[in-house]
């Protein structure tokens, strides 16, 4: 896709995209530094900063390739950075889908088998990245038809798998929403839960669109002498850099550092919400003073996230810790109520 870059067309386009990704890199780094000073740990901002830097390097090497079209090393570097950078966005969305799963189904989402499944998936992604880089470099240095066919098979297999990884957050989130649950949603972060879901699904759809288009073009692979419409420079820049910029821009504007933040050190059900999670049983809704003199529905609601007397102090400390991480010690009193009163969303 995109063909060999030239000075007349590729350099102006790459220059514009460079400005856009530099601005996004500065934005996400600024957000990370501000949050770090407030003891608000959110490493995903650094991941998106790293992605923007990878795109800056890819665009810079593509400009250099347009200036020196016979330089093989520059062409290899441009191809590798173009293919590898987007994996960071795939990983971010997969991890966000894990947080949604744990919020809706804590017992299942925090199960060790699910945890190791996610870790295994990320390990496979890293292995496939190494395979793609090796195959891409090999294609530049070999004319053997057998080896070139092998390298192309590796690229197509890895591209198909990574397109599935880009799509994975969509079924995970939808299954989390539709599957029956026995506990209330463990809300995390700031803002409406519905907005979190919409943001994650929309970015996953955009990334899937780009990955699907690239792998489809790879399978078609018309001869270089007669390129198809999907090999044009317009498609190359739109379905690579354009869609990816939309994702990093959407996350910055939506302040995903607040929406997807969870308390530092969370490792079990109840930690996202700042308390201990209990199942709602029939006995929770009877033989209570509130049942006789108050609203039964309200009584049932208050028992879902209720902490036991032994755990009350631990739950209070966990809640205060979450507030300090998100808003900082100086602004807990003024903003914490807004943080913990977000609407239910898609319960």
TrEMBL record:
Name under which the protein is recorded: Uncharacterized protein
Lineage of producing organism: Eukaryota, Fungi, Dikarya, Ascomycota, Pezizomycotina
Residue stretches spanning the membrane: 12-31, 43-65, 71-96, 116-141, 153-178, 199-221, 236-254
Domain of life where this protein originates: Eukaryota
Keywords annotated in UniProt: Membrane, Transmembrane, Transmembrane helix
């Amino acid at each position: 896709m995109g063909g060999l870059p030239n000075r007349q067309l590729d350099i102006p386009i790459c220059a514009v995209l460079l400005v856009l990704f530099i601005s996004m890199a500065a934005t996400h780094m600024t957000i990370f530094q501000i949050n770090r000073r407030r003891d608000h740990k959110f490493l995903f901002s650094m991941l998106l900063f790293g992605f923007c830097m990878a795109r800056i390097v890819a665009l810079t090497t593509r400009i250099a390739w347009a200036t020196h079209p016979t330089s093989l090393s520059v062409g290899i570097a441009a191809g590798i950075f173009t293919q590898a950078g987007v994996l960071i966005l795939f990983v971010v969305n997969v991890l966000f889908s894990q947080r949604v799963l744990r919020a809706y189904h804590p017992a299942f989402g925090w199960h060790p088998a699910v945890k190791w499944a996610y870790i295994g998936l990320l390990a496979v992604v890293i292995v496939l990245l190494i395979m793609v880089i090796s195959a891409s470099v090999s294609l530049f240095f070999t004319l053997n038809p057998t080896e070139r066919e092998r390298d192309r098979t590796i690229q197509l297999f890895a591209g198909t798998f990574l397109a599935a990884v880009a799509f994975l957050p969509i079924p995970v989130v939808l299954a989390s929403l539709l599957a029956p649950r026995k506990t209330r949603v463990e809300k995390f972060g700031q803002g409406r839960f519905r907005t979190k879901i919409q943001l994650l699904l929309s970015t996953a759809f955009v990334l899937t669109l780009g990955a699907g288009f690239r792998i489809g073009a790879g399978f078609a692979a018309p001869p270089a002498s007669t390129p198809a419409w999907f090999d044009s420079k317009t498609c190359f820049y739109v379905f690579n850099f354009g869609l990816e910029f939309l994702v990093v821009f959407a996350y910055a504007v939506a302040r995903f550092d607040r929406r997807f933040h969870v308390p530092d050190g969370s490792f079990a059900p109840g930690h996202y919400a700042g308390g201990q999670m209990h199942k709602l049983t029939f006995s929770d809704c009877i033989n209570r003073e509130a049942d006789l003199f108050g609203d039964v529905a309200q009584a049932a609601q208050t028992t879902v996230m209720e902490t036991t007397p032994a755990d009350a102090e631990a739950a209070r400390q966990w809640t205060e810790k979450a507030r300090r991480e998100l808003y900082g010690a100086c602004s807990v009193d003024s903003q914490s109520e807004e943080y913990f009163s977000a609407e239910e969303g898609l319960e």
